[in-house]
TrEMBL record, chain A:
Membrane topology, record value: Peripheral membrane protein
Protein name, entry field: General vesicular transport factor p115
Domain named Vesicle tethering protein Uso1/P115-like head: residues: 410-698
Lineage per the UniProt record: Eukaryota, Metazoa, Chordata, Craniata, Vertebrata
Keyword entries, A-Z: Coiled coil, Cytoplasm, Golgi apparatus, Membrane, Repeat
PROSITE patterns: ARM_REPEAT (PS50176)
Family, similarity comment: Belongs to the VDP/USO1/EDE1 family.
Automatic annotation (TrEMBL), chain B:
Pfam families the record matches: Ras (PF00071)
InterPro entries the UniProt entry points to: P-loop_NTPase, Rab_GTPases_membrane_traffic, Small_GTP-bd, Small_GTPase
Source organism per UniProt: Gekko japonicus (Schlegel's Japanese gecko)
Keyword vocabulary terms for this entry: GTP-binding, Nucleotide-binding
Keyword Mitochondrion: no
Membership in a protein family: Belongs to the small GTPase superfamily. Rab family.
Coiled-coil residue windows: none
Protein name per the record: Ras-related protein Rab-2A
NCBIfam families: small_GTP
Length: 1022, 207
C-alpha cells in the first residue's frame, strides 16, 4: 500500500478544492491517491504516472506532484459524481461534457453503484444527443459497460469483505441492466452505435451489448428480435476487418444466440456458417487460437438442438468443410492445450449433427454426408493413429460411434477399418482389446463400449459377424489372430468386474432384436479346464452367476452379476428355445427363487430385481415344452417360495434404481465411476417393455390362465366367424367388383350409343346438306319453281314440303303432258305439212310409284333392325336391373345380426356391411340413372332414326323425280331435235317443192333449249 | 376480434407447399410454423445444378418481426394466399409493402393462390389474382399443395426468373446480400417464399 512500491501504475487522480470535505471512500486496493491543487475543483481522470520513493508523482509532462496516500476518509465520491453528472447535464460546452463523462468513466469501475445510480440517465442522454462526437459516445459506452459488466479482471480482490461486496455488485449488474433495457429504445439506440464504424464507438458498443445479454439474455434478445433487422445488423460485425471487433463480435453472437432458436436461425440465414468456417480456416483450424474456440462455441450454439439449422448446415454442404479439421497428421508435433480444446469442440460439433436425440431422418442424412465427404474416414484415421492424447482419442471414439450408429453404410465401413499394425487387425478388435483391458482409462473403455453398441445398433449383418466369431464352425483354430468373440468371452470371464459387465452388455447388443442369433448363440461351447467336457456359453454364464461370490474379483461383485443378468434377460426374451435351454439346467430356477426370496442388503437389490426379471421372462416366453417347468408350475413356485407381492416388489427394484433412470436418458453410457455402470440404455428399453406384461402374467391365477385359454379358444372361434364373414365380404366384394365392371361396360355401351347418335345426327346433317344441294340444283334446273325449295327443312315441316314437292311433280307431269300436247299439235302440224307424217312415240310412262315402294320397304327394314336393337338393349337393361335387385337382396340379407361377444370386430363387420350396402345403393342409383339416360337416348335415337328415314325417303323420291325429269327432258329434247330436223327437212322439202313456209316456225325450233319459256310462249300462243 | 383476424392469416399452406416441393408429400394436419423452418432441394435449370434453399416463415402475426429478417438476403419470394379465404387475399397489399420495404429491390416475387383443389369453396377468382399480380408486377400461379398441381412450376419458375436476372447481370453474384452464391460446381439461389405476412424464403448456398 505504500507509494514506494509503485512502479508504473494506472491511478486515478483528482484535483479537488478541499481535501477535508471528502470523507469518503476507501481507496482500498491497489494504489490510489489524491492530489490537491489550488483552484481546481475536480479531477483529471485517467493518466499514467510514475512515482518516486519520496512520494512524489511524476506526471507525464515531467512535472512532479506531491503524493498523498489516503487512508482516512477524505472525500465523498457521491458528491464528486454528482458534480460530474451536473456538468454532463448542464454544460453547454461539448469539451466540458466530454471531460465529465471521461471522469465518470474513470470512477465507474470502483464506484459502480454510485456512478450507476447517478449517471445512468445522463449517460443515456449523452447517447441520445451527442451522437456526432464519437469520443464522448465512446466514453459513455465504456462507462455504461463498466457499470453493467462483471468483468473484474482489473480489480484485485483479496479479502472477504471485498468478496461480499462483489456478490452485492453482481446483483447490481443485473439491476442496472434491467434499468437500462427497461426503455427498449436504449437497446435500439445501442444497436445503431454498433453500426458506427469508429473503433472507439463500435468496440465499447459491442462490449456493452454483450454484457447486457450476459445479464438479461432473454429480455435483450427479445428487444433485438423485434427491432427491425436487429439480428441481421449484428452479423455485420463478423465482416469487420479489425480483428478485435470481429472477435468481440463472435463473443457477442455467442451470447445473442444462447437458447433462442429464432435468433439462431436468423444468424444462420445471414451466412454465419460460411463466415465462421472461413475464420476457422484462416486461423489454421485446430492450430488456431482462442478465436477458433469462440467460433466453434458459436457454431455449437447455432446447431445444437436446432433441426432447421442442422438441415441448412447439411444442405449448404458445410459438413464437407469440417473434414480438414481432422487432418491431424501422425507426426503430432505438438498438442497445445488450445489445440486439444479446439479439437474437442470440433468433435462435439460433429456429434451435435448426428446425435441420437436428433430426428432420425435428419441424423441419418448427416451421417451419410459424413461418409461421402470422407469425414468418417478421417475420424477413423485419428482413431488408429498413435500419440493422440487420451481425451481426444476418447472423444473421437464417441464421435465415430454416433456417426455410424444405425447407419448401415457407415457401420459397414467401420467394420472394414483396419489398424495399421502387422498383420493388420480390424479396428473393432483393437478397440475391444482396450475395452477389456483394465489398465486403459475408464472413459476410454466406456467410449469403446458405446462404439461397439453403435456399431451393432440396427445392424443385423454386424451382429451376425460378431456372433459368428464365436460359433464352432468359424472359430480360427490356428489362434493366430484374436477375434471379437474371443475378446468378449475373455472379458466375460475375466476377474475384472467392469470387463465382465462391458463384455456382457456388448454381447447383449449383438443379440438385440435378433431372434435367430439368440438361437445360434446357444450352440456356442466353451472348453473349460483340461479333461472336463466343454460347457455351453449359456451354462457358463449361469455358473458364474451362481458361483460369483466364490471368485476373487477386482471391482464390484454386483456389477459382474448385473452384467450377466442383463445378458441373460436379453438372450431369453422373445426366444422360447433359449428359455427351454435355460430351464433345462435344474440348478437355475432354485438359484433364482433363492436370490429373490432372500433378504439381502440394499446393494444386492438390483440383482434381486434382475433375477425376478429373468424368472418372469422364463415364464412369459415359456412354450411349456418342459413338463417340470410349465408356466403354471413356475407360477406356483413363485407363489409358494416368494409370494406374488414380494416378487412384483423385487421386480420393481430395477426401474426404481437411481442409476436406471440415468441410463434410460440416452444411449451413451455416461457415468463418472466404474462402479456406477449398472444399466445399459437398450436394456432399460427392454425393462420398460416387459415390466407391465410380466406383472400381469404373474398376477394371473391358474383359473385366469385357463380362462385365458378359453378366451383364446373363443377368440379362435370368433376368428372363424370373422373369417367366415370375411369370406362373405370377399364374395360380395367380388360381386360388387363385377357389378362395377358391368356398370363400366354399360357406360361404354352408352358412350358408343351416344357416338352412334352423334354419327347419325351428322349423317342427317349430311343428308340435309345433300338435300339442300340437290334442291339448289333442282332450282337451277327448274327456275320457275322458285317457291319454298331453299327453305331448310325441319323435322316437323317435312311432310308439308313433300306434299309441295308432290304438287310440283304433279305440275311437272302436267307440263309434260302439255308439252306432249304441243308435240302432238306440232306432229299434227307436221302431219298437215306432210301428207304422210311419221308416227311419233309419246309413250314415256313414269315408274315412280314402283321405285317409291322399294325405298319404303328398305327403310322399313332398317327401322325394323333398329327397333330390334333397341328391344335387345331394353331387355339387357331389364336383366341388369333384376340382377342388381337380386344382389341387393343378397346384401341386405347377408349382414344379419352378427353373433359373438367381441363387440368391436362385429361392429367393424357391420360397418363394412353398411358401407357395402351404401355402395350397392349408390351403384343402383347409378344404374337407374344410366337406364334413364338410355331411355332418353333411345328416344333420341328413335326420333333421329325416323327423321333419317323420312329424309332418306324424301331424298330418294326427289332423286328419282329429278332423274326422271332429266330423262324426260332429254327424251323430249331428242324428240324435239328430231322433229326440228324433220321440220327443217320438211321445210326444205317444201321449199324445194316451192311451197311458202312460215317464219314463225323457225324461231320456235331454234329456241327449243329454253323449254320453259318456249312452253310459256306456247301456252300463250295457244 | 383482432385476434381472430391475425389467426386468419395463417394456414394458407406455405409449409405444405414446401413439403410437397422437397418431399413430395402432403400433410393434412396443420402444424403451426414457429418462426421459420428451412428446406432445400436441388433443381436443374438450363443444364445447371442449382440448390434452392427455402425458408418457410410463420404466418402468425406474432412472428412477423422474426420473419421480416428473412427478406434481406433473399433472391426470391413466394407470396401465398388461400383462394378459399378472401381475407388472406385482402391482406396481400400489406404483406407486399412489408416485403418490398425490407428486401432487395430486385427480389423476384411470385404470387401464389393456393388450395386450387378446393374449387367448390373458392372465394377469390383466378382473374383477381392475375389482376393483382399484373398491377404489382408479380408472376402469378394457382397451386394445390394437396394435389401437387403447379407446385414444381411455382418454385422452378421463380428460380428460373432469378436465374435469368443473374444472367442479365441484375443480381451481383458476389454480394451475399442478394442471396445468391456460386459454388465450384453448382450455383445456388436464395428465394423467399412468403405467405401473406408470412412466407417461405429460399436462400442459396453452394455445394
Ligand atoms: N385442400 C388443401 N388443403 C391445403 C392445401 N395446402 C395446405 N392445406 C391445408 O391447410 C392447412 C395449413 O397448411 P400449412 O402449410 O401448415 O399452413 P401455413 O401457411 O404454413 O401456416 P402457418 O405456418 O401457421 O403460417 C393444413 O391443414 C393443410 O392440410 C391445399 O393445397 N389444398
Ligand atoms: Mg407453416
Amino acid at each position: 500500500m505504500s507509494g514506494g512500491k509503485l512502479g508504473k501504475t494506472r491511478i486515478w487522480l483528482f484535483l479537488i478544492d478541499n481535501l477535508e470535505t471528502w470523507p469518503g471512500p476507501k481507496f482500498s486496493s491497489g494504489f490510489s491517491c489524491l492530489v490537491s491543487s489550488q483552484g481546481y475543483p475536480w479531477g483529471l481522470g485517467e493518466s499514467h504516472f510514475q512515482s518516486d520513493l519520496d512520494g512524489r508523482l511524476l506526471l507525464s509532462e515531467g512535472q512532479y506532484l506531491p503524493l498523498i496516500e489516503v487512508h482516512k476518509p477524505a472525500i465523498l465520491p457521491g458528491k464528486l459524481i454528482h458534480k460530474l453528472c451536473d456538468r454532463v447535464a448542464s454544460s453547454t460546452l461539448l469539451e466540458d461534457r466530454r471531460d465529465a463523462v471521461r471522469a465518470l468513466k474513470s470512477l465507474s469501475k470502483k464506484y459502480r453503484l454510485e456512478v450507476g445510480i447517478q449517471a445512468m440517465d445522463h449517460l443515456i442522454h449523452v447517447l441520445q444527443t451527442d451522437r456526432s462526437d464519437s469520443e464522448i459516445i465512446g466514453y459513455a459506452l465504456d462507462t455504461l459497460y463498466n457499470i453493467i459488466s462483471n468483468d473484474l479482471e482489473e480489480e484485485e480482490q483479496d479479502d472477504s469483505e471485498e468478496e461480499n461486496s462483489q456478490k452485492q455488485t453482481e446483483d447490481l449488474e443485473s439491476q442496472f441492466t434491467e434499468i437500462f433495457i427497461k426503455q427498449q429504445e436504449n437497446v435500439t439506440l445501442l444497436l445503431t452505435y454498433l453500426e458506427e464504424f469508429d473503433f472507439h464507438v463500435r468496440r465499447p458498443g459491442v462490449k456493452l451489448l454483450t454484457a447486457l445479454l450476459k445479464q438479461q439474455g432473454p429480455q435483450v434478445q427479445q428487444v433485438i428480435l423485434v427491432s427491425p433487422m436487429g439480428v441481421s445488423r449484428l452479423m455485420d460485425l463478423l465482416a469487420d476487418s479489425r480483428e478485435v471487433i470481429r472477435n468481440d463480435g463472435v463473443l457477442l453472437l455467442q451470447q445473442l444466440t444462447k437458447s433462442n432458436a429464432a435468433i439462431q436461425k436468423i444468424v444462420a440465414f445471414e451466412n454465419a456458417f460460411e463466415r465462421l468456417l472461413d475464420i476457422i480456416t484462416e486461423e489454421g483450424n485446430s492450430d488456431g487460437g482462442i478465436v477458433v474456440e469462440d467460433c466453434l462455441l458459436l457454431l455449437q450454439n447455432l446447431l445444437k438442438n436446432n433441426n432447421s439449422n442442422q438441415n441448412f448446415f447439411k444442405e449448404g454442404s458445410y459438413i464437407q468443410r469440417m473434414k480438414p479439421w481432422f487432418e491431424v497428421g501422425d507426426d503430432n508435433a505438438g498438442w497445445s492445450a488450445q489445440k486439444v480444446t479446439n479439437l474437442h469442440l470440433m468433435l462435439q460439433l460433429v456429434r451435435v449433427l448426428v446425435s441420437p436425440t436428433n430426428p432420425p431422418g435428419a441424423a441419418s442424412s448427416c451421417q451419410k454426408a459424413m461418409f461421402h465427404c470422407g469425414l468418417l474416414q478421417q475420424l477413423c484415421t485419428i482413431l488408429m493413429a498413435t500419440g493422440v492424447p487420451a481425451d481426444i482419442l476418447t472423444e473421437t471414439i464417441n464421435t465415430v460411434s454416433e456417426v455410424i450408429r444405425g447407419c448401415q453404410m457407415n457401420q459397414d465401413y467401420f467394420a472394414s477399418v483396419n489398424a495399421p499394425s502387422n498383420p493388420p487387425r480390424p479396428a473393432i478388435v483393437v478397440l475391444l482389446m482396450s475395452m477389456v483391458n483394465e489398465r486403459q482409462p475408464f472413459v476410454l473403455r466406456c467410449a469403446v463400449l458405446y462404439c461397439f453398441q453403435c456399431f451393432l445398433y440396427k445392424n443385423q449383418k454386424g451382429q451376425g459377424e460378431i456372433v459368428s466369431t464365436l460359433l464352432p464352425s468359424t472359430i480360427d483354430a490356428t489362434g493366430n489372430s484374436v477375434s471379437a468373440g474371443q475378446l468378449l468371452c475373455g472379458g466375460l470371464f475375466s476377474t475384472d468386474s467392469f470387463s465382465n459387465w462391458c463384455a456382457a452388455v456388448a454381447l447383449a447388443h449383438a443379440l438385440q432384436e435378433n431372434a435367430p442369433l439368440k438361437e445360434q448363440l446357444l450352440r456356442v461351447q466353451l472348453a473349460t479346464s483340461l479333461g472336463n467336457p466343454p460347457v455351453s456359453l449359456l451354462q457358463q454364464c449361469t455358473n458364474i452367476l451362481s458361483q460369483g461370490d466364490k471368485i476373487d474379483r477386482r471391482g464390484s461383485k454386483v456389477q459382474t452379476r448385473v452384467g450377466l443378468l442383463i445378458l441373460l434377460c436379453t438372450w431369453l426374451s422373445n426366444c422360447p428355445i433359449a428359455v427351454t435351454h435355460f430351464l433345462h439346467n435344474s440348478a437355475n430356477v432354485p438359484f433364482l427363487t433363492g436370490q429373490i426370496a432372500e433378504n439381502l442388503g440394499v446393494e444386492e437389490r438390483v440383482v434381486q430385481g434382475l433375477c425376478a426379471l429373468l424368472l418372469g421372462i422364463s415364464i412369459y416366453y415359456n412354450d411349456n415344452s418342459l413338463e417340470n417347468y410349465r408356466k403354471e408350475k413356475l407360477k406356483q413356485l413363485i407363489e409358494k417360495r416368494i409370494g406374488k407381492e414380494n416378487f412384483i416388489e423385487k421386480l420393481g427394484f430395477i426401474s426404481k434404481h437411481e442409476l436406471y433412470s440415468r441410463a434410460a436418458q440416452k444411449p451413451q453410457p455416461n457415468f463418472s465411476n466404474p462402479d456406477d455402470m449398472m444399466f445399459d440404455h437398450e436394456f432399460t428399453k427392454l425393462v420398460k417393455e416387459l415390466e407391465g406384461v410380466l406383472t400381469k402374467a404373474i398376477y394371473k391365477t391358474t383359473e385366469e390362465d385357463k380362462k385365458e385359454e378359453e378366451v383364446k379358444k373363443t377368440l379362435e372361434q370368433h376368428d372363424n366367424i370373422v373369417t367366415h364373414y370375411k369370406s362373405v365380404i370377399r364374395v360380395q366384394d367380388q360381386e360388387l367388383e363385377d357389378l362395377k365392371k358391368q356398370v363400366e361396360s354399360l357406360k361404354v355401351q352408352n358412350e358408343q350409343l351416344q357416338a352412334r347418335v352423334t354419327q347419325q345426327v351428322s349423317q342427317i346433317q349430311q343428308h340435309k346438306d345433300q338435300y339442300n344441294l340437290l334442291k339448289v340444283q333442282l332450282g337451277k334446273d327448274n327456275q320457275h319453281h322458285s317457291s319454298g325449295n331453299d327453305v331448310v327443312q325441319m323435322n316437323g315441316v317435312q311432310s308439308e314440303e313433300i306434299s309441295k314437292l308432290r304438287e310440283e311433280a304433279e305440275e311437272w307431269k302436267h307440263k309434260l303432258e302439255q308439252l306432249e300436247e304441243q308435240l302432238r299439235e306440232k306432229d299434227s302440224l307436221i302431219e298437215v305439212l306432210k301428207s304422210s307424217p311419221p308416227a311419233v312415240g309419246t309413250s314415256e310412262g313414269s315408274s315412280q310409284t314402283k321405285t317409291g315402294l322399294e325405298v319404303e320397304s328398305e327403310l322399313h327394314r332398317e327401322a325394323e333392325t333398329l327397333r330390334a336393337q333397341i328391344h335387345l338393349q331394353t331387355t339387357e337393361i331389364a336383366l341388369l336391373q333384376t340382377e342388381k335387385q337380386e344382389l341387393l337382396q343378397q346384401m341386405s340379407a347377408a349382414p344379419a345380426p352378427v353373433p359373438g361377444d367381441r363387440g368391436t370386430e362385429t361392429a367393424d363387420l357391420e360397418g363394412r356391411f353398411t358401407a357395402l350396402l351404401q355402395e350397392t345403393k349408390e351403384l343402383k342409383n347409378e344404374i337407374v340413372g344410366l337406364a334413364e339416360e338410355r331411355t332418353s337416348l333411345k328416344q333420341q335415337l328413335d326420333s333421329a332414326n325416323s327423321t333419317a328415314a323420312i329424309l332418306r325417303t324424301e331424298k330418294s323420291a326427289l332423286q328419282q323425280e329429278i332423274a326422271e325429269s332429266k330423262k324426260e327432258q332429254d327424251d323430249l329434247l331428242v324428240l324435239l331435235a328430231d322433229q326440228d330436223q324433220k321440220i327443217v327437212a320438211l321445210k326444205n322439202k317444201l321449199k324445194e317443192l316451192g311451197e311458202p313456209v312460215e317464219d314463225e316456225e323457225d324461231t320456235e325450233s331454234g329456241d327449243q333449249g329454253e323449254e320453259d319459256e318456249e312452253d310459256g310462249k306456247g301456252e300463250r300462243e295457244d | 376480434m383482432d385476434v381472430e383476424v391475425t389467426q386468419d392469416y395463417q394456414c394458407v399452406g406455405k409449409s405444405c407447399l414446401l413439403l410437397q416441393f422437397t418431399d413430395k408429400r402432403f400433410q393434412p394436419v396443420h402444424d403451426l410454423t414457429i418462426g421459420v423452418e428451412f428446406g432445400a432441394r436441388m433443381i436443374t435449370i438450363e443444364g445447371k445444378q442449382i440448390k434452392l434453399q427455402i425458408w418457410d416463415t410463420a404466418g402468425q402475426e406474432s412472428f412477423r418481426s422474426i420473419t421480416r429478417s428473412y427478406y434481406r438476403g433473399a433472391a426470391g419470394a413466394l407470396l401465398v394466399y388461400d383462394i378459399t379465404r378472401r381475407d388472406t387475399f385482402n391482406h396481400l397489399t400489406t404483406w407486399l409493402e412489408d416485403a418490398r420495404q425490407h428486401s432487395n429491390s430486385n427480389m423476384v416475387i411470385m404470387l401464389i393462390g393456393n388450395k386450387s383443389d378446393l374449387e367448390s369453396r373458392r372465394e377469390v377468382k383466378k382473374e383477381e389474382g392475375e389482376a393483382f399480380a399484373q398491377e404489382h408486377g408479380l408472376i402469378f400461379m394457382e397451386t394445390s399443395a394437396k394435389t401437387a398441381s403447379n407446385v414444381e412450376e411455382a418454385f422452378i419458375d421463380t428460380a428460373k426468373e432469378i436465374f435469368q436476372k443473374i444472367q442479365e447481370g441484375v443480381f451481383d453474384i458476389n454480394n451475399e446480400a442478394n442471396g445468391i452464391k456460386i459454388g465450384p460446381q453448382h450455383a445456388a439461389t436464395n428465394a423467399t417464399l412468403a405467405g401473406n405476412q408470412g412466407g417461405q424464403q429460399a436462400g442459396g448456398g453452394c455445394c
